[in-house]
Protein backbone atom coordinates (compact mmCIF):
# COMPACT_ATOMS: atom_id res chain seq x y z
CA UNK A 1 0.00 0.00 0.00
CA UNK A 2 2.75 2.38 0.81
CA UNK A 3 4.31 1.46 -2.38
CA UNK A 4 1.17 2.37 -4.30
CA UNK A 5 0.90 5.60 -2.45
CA UNK A 6 4.50 6.49 -3.31
CA UNK A 7 3.94 5.63 -6.95
CA UNK A 8 0.75 7.69 -7.01
CA UNK A 9 2.49 10.65 -5.38
CA UNK A 10 5.32 10.42 -7.87
CA UNK A 11 2.90 10.43 -10.80
CA UNK A 12 0.73 13.25 -9.48
CA UNK A 13 3.56 15.17 -7.89
CA UNK A 14 5.77 15.06 -11.00
CA UNK A 15 3.12 16.52 -13.33
CA UNK A 16 3.91 20.11 -14.18
CA UNK A 17 1.23 22.66 -13.33
CA UNK A 18 -0.64 24.25 -16.24
CA UNK A 19 0.70 27.70 -17.23
CA UNK A 20 -1.51 30.24 -19.08
CA UNK A 21 0.14 32.61 -21.59
CA UNK A 22 0.71 33.52 -25.22
CA UNK A 23 1.70 30.58 -27.36
CA UNK A 24 2.41 32.52 -30.63
CA UNK A 25 6.16 32.76 -31.21
CA UNK A 26 5.64 35.91 -33.38
CA UNK A 27 4.03 37.84 -30.49
CA UNK A 28 5.94 40.28 -28.30
CA UNK A 29 4.68 38.53 -25.15
CA UNK A 30 5.34 34.92 -26.21
CA UNK A 31 5.68 32.67 -23.17
CA UNK A 32 7.73 29.52 -23.82
CA UNK A 33 6.68 28.08 -20.45
CA UNK A 34 2.94 28.44 -21.16
CA UNK A 35 0.93 25.34 -21.96
CA UNK A 36 -2.51 26.96 -22.26
CA UNK A 37 -3.15 29.91 -24.68
CA UNK A 38 -4.72 32.89 -22.91
CA UNK A 39 -5.70 34.63 -26.23
CA UNK A 40 -3.89 37.85 -25.26
CA UNK A 41 -0.92 37.84 -27.60
CA UNK A 42 0.38 41.30 -28.52
CA UNK A 43 2.14 42.30 -31.71
CA UNK A 44 4.19 45.31 -32.90
CA UNK A 45 2.63 46.88 -35.97
CA UNK A 46 4.57 48.77 -38.65
CA UNK A 47 4.25 51.98 -36.64
CA UNK A 48 5.88 50.44 -33.57
CA UNK A 49 2.60 50.24 -31.65
CA UNK A 50 2.09 47.15 -29.50
CA UNK A 51 -1.52 45.96 -29.61
CA UNK A 52 -3.61 42.81 -30.03
CA UNK A 53 -4.89 43.77 -33.52
CA UNK A 54 -3.51 41.35 -36.09
CA UNK A 55 -4.98 43.33 -39.00
CA UNK A 56 -2.35 46.04 -38.47
CA UNK A 57 -4.39 49.24 -38.50
CA UNK A 58 -1.29 51.31 -39.24
CA UNK A 59 -1.09 52.53 -42.88
CA UNK A 60 1.50 54.18 -45.10
CA UNK A 61 0.98 57.83 -46.05
CA UNK A 62 1.44 59.10 -49.63
CA UNK A 63 5.17 59.46 -48.95
CA UNK A 64 5.50 55.80 -47.97
CA UNK A 65 5.97 56.44 -44.23
CA UNK A 66 4.12 54.07 -41.90
CA UNK A 67 1.76 56.11 -39.74
CA UNK A 68 3.06 59.35 -41.28
CA UNK A 69 1.04 62.51 -41.88
CA UNK A 70 2.09 62.87 -45.52
CA UNK A 71 3.81 65.78 -47.18
CA UNK A 72 3.44 69.27 -45.75
CA UNK A 73 0.95 71.45 -47.62
CA UNK A 74 2.42 72.81 -50.91
CA UNK A 75 5.50 70.53 -50.61
CA UNK A 76 6.36 67.15 -52.13
CA UNK A 77 7.50 64.14 -50.10
CA UNK A 78 11.15 65.27 -50.34
CA UNK A 79 10.35 68.70 -48.84
CA UNK A 80 10.55 70.60 -52.14
CA UNK A 81 8.10 73.45 -52.69
CA UNK A 82 5.72 72.63 -55.54
CA UNK A 83 4.57 76.24 -56.05
CA UNK A 84 6.11 79.67 -56.39
CA UNK A 85 7.73 81.08 -53.26
CA UNK A 86 6.45 84.57 -52.42
CA UNK A 87 8.53 87.51 -51.21
CA UNK A 88 8.06 86.42 -47.58
CA UNK A 89 9.62 83.05 -48.45
CA UNK A 90 6.30 81.18 -48.11
CA UNK A 91 5.75 78.29 -50.51
CA UNK A 92 2.54 78.99 -52.41
CA UNK A 93 2.10 82.28 -50.55
CA UNK A 94 0.48 85.37 -52.06
CA UNK A 95 2.71 88.18 -50.75
CA UNK A 96 4.11 90.42 -53.51
CA UNK A 97 6.38 93.46 -53.73
CA UNK A 98 4.25 96.61 -53.84
CA UNK A 99 4.90 99.78 -55.85
CA UNK A 100 7.13 101.05 -53.03
CA UNK A 101 9.40 97.95 -53.15
CA UNK A 102 7.96 96.65 -49.87
CA UNK A 103 7.15 92.95 -49.56
CA UNK A 104 3.46 92.49 -48.76
CA UNK A 105 3.13 96.29 -48.53
CA UNK A 106 0.11 98.39 -49.36
CA UNK A 107 1.71 101.18 -51.45
CA UNK A 108 1.58 103.65 -48.56
CA UNK A 109 5.29 103.97 -47.81
CA UNK A 110 6.19 105.97 -50.92
CA UNK A 111 4.71 108.90 -52.78
CA UNK A 112 4.52 110.22 -56.30
CA UNK A 113 3.82 113.57 -57.87
CA UNK A 114 1.84 113.51 -61.09
CA UNK A 115 1.91 116.63 -63.23
CA UNK A 116 -0.67 117.10 -65.94
CA UNK A 117 0.51 119.80 -68.33
CA UNK A 118 -2.05 121.17 -70.70
CA UNK A 119 -1.44 123.23 -73.81
CA UNK A 120 -4.48 124.60 -75.60
CA UNK A 121 -4.13 126.33 -78.94
CA UNK A 122 -7.21 128.38 -79.77
CA UNK A 123 -7.43 128.95 -83.49
CA UNK A 124 -10.74 128.24 -85.12
CA UNK A 125 -11.11 124.91 -83.24
CA UNK A 126 -9.19 124.48 -79.95
CA UNK A 127 -6.36 121.96 -80.14
CA UNK A 128 -5.59 120.39 -76.77
CA UNK A 129 -2.31 118.65 -75.96
CA UNK A 130 -1.97 117.03 -72.53
CA UNK A 131 1.34 115.71 -71.22
CA UNK A 132 1.35 113.56 -68.09
CA UNK A 133 4.59 113.31 -66.06
CA UNK A 134 5.28 111.45 -62.85
CA UNK A 135 8.02 111.95 -60.23
CA UNK A 136 8.79 109.44 -57.47
CA UNK A 137 9.68 110.11 -53.84
CA UNK A 138 9.57 113.87 -53.74
CA UNK A 139 8.00 115.90 -50.99
CA UNK A 140 4.57 117.44 -51.29
CA UNK A 141 6.24 120.85 -51.22
CA UNK A 142 8.48 119.92 -54.16
CA UNK A 143 5.46 118.59 -56.01
CA UNK A 144 3.62 121.91 -55.62
CA UNK A 145 6.48 123.65 -57.43
CA UNK A 146 5.25 122.04 -60.67
CA UNK A 147 1.89 123.77 -60.41
CA UNK A 148 1.24 126.44 -63.04
CA UNK A 149 -1.89 128.51 -63.17
CA UNK A 150 -3.37 128.97 -66.61
CA UNK A 151 -1.28 131.39 -68.62
CA UNK A 152 -2.50 132.56 -72.01
CA UNK A 153 -0.68 134.57 -74.63
CA UNK A 154 -1.10 135.57 -78.20
CA UNK A 155 1.79 135.71 -80.63
CA UNK A 156 0.39 136.15 -84.07
CA UNK A 157 3.86 136.00 -85.61
CA UNK A 158 4.72 132.58 -84.20
CA UNK A 159 1.27 130.99 -83.87
CA UNK A 160 -1.99 132.35 -85.13
CA UNK A 161 -4.55 132.40 -82.35
CA UNK A 162 -4.11 132.19 -78.59
CA UNK A 163 -2.17 129.58 -76.60
CA UNK A 164 -2.83 128.75 -72.97
CA UNK A 165 -0.67 126.58 -70.74
CA UNK A 166 -1.36 125.19 -67.29
CA UNK A 167 -0.21 122.37 -65.05
CA UNK A 168 -2.24 120.55 -62.43
CA UNK A 169 -0.53 118.47 -59.77
CA UNK A 170 -1.60 115.35 -57.90
CA UNK A 171 0.38 114.33 -54.85
CA UNK A 172 -0.53 110.73 -53.96
CA UNK A 173 0.65 107.44 -52.47
CA UNK A 174 2.32 104.87 -54.69
CA UNK A 175 5.09 104.99 -57.23
CA UNK A 176 5.31 106.01 -60.87
CA UNK A 177 6.50 102.56 -61.92
CA UNK A 178 3.01 101.11 -62.06
CA UNK A 179 1.17 104.33 -62.83
CA UNK A 180 -0.73 103.89 -66.09
CA UNK A 181 -1.51 107.56 -66.70
CA UNK A 182 -5.19 107.41 -65.67
Features:
single chain; 182 residues; 4-stranded antiparallel β-sheet; two-stranded parallel sheet; 8 strands; 10% helix
The whole-number mean of residue pLDDT values reads: 82
Largest sheet: 4 strands, antiparallel
Give the N-terminus to C-terminus distance in angstroms: 126 Å
**By helix and strand content, what is the structural category?**
mainly beta
How many β-strand stretches?
8
The helical percent reads: under 10%
Share of residues in strands = 25-35%
Radius of gyration: 46 Å
Reading side by side through the largest sheet, how are the strands ordered? 6-5-8-7
Gross morphology is rod-shaped
Q: List SSEs in N-to-C order.
A: HEEEEEEHEE
**Ranges with pLDDT <50 over ≥5 residues?**
none
Description:
The mean pLDDT is 82. The protein is built from two helices and eight strands; from the N terminus they run H-E-E-E-E-E-E-H-E-E. The termini are far apart. Strand 5 (111-123) and strand 6 (125-136) form a beta hairpin. The radius of gyration is 46 Å and the shape is rod-shaped. The strands form three sheets. Strands 6-5-8-7 form a four-stranded antiparallel sheet. Among the domains are: 23-54, no CATH class; 78-106, no CATH class; 111-173, no CATH class. It has helices at 2-14, 140-144; strands at residues 20-21, 36-37, 43-44, 50-51, 111-123, 125-136, 148-155, 159-173. 10% of the residues lie in helices and 31% in strands. With 182 residues, the protein is mainly beta. The longest helix is centred in the first third of the chain and has 13 residues, at 2-14.
Amino acid sequence: MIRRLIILLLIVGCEEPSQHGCLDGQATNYDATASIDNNFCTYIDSCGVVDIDLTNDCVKDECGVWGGDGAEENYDCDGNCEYEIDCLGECGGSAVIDDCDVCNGNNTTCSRCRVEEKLVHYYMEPIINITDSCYDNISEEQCHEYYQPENCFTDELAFPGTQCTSAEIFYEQGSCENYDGN
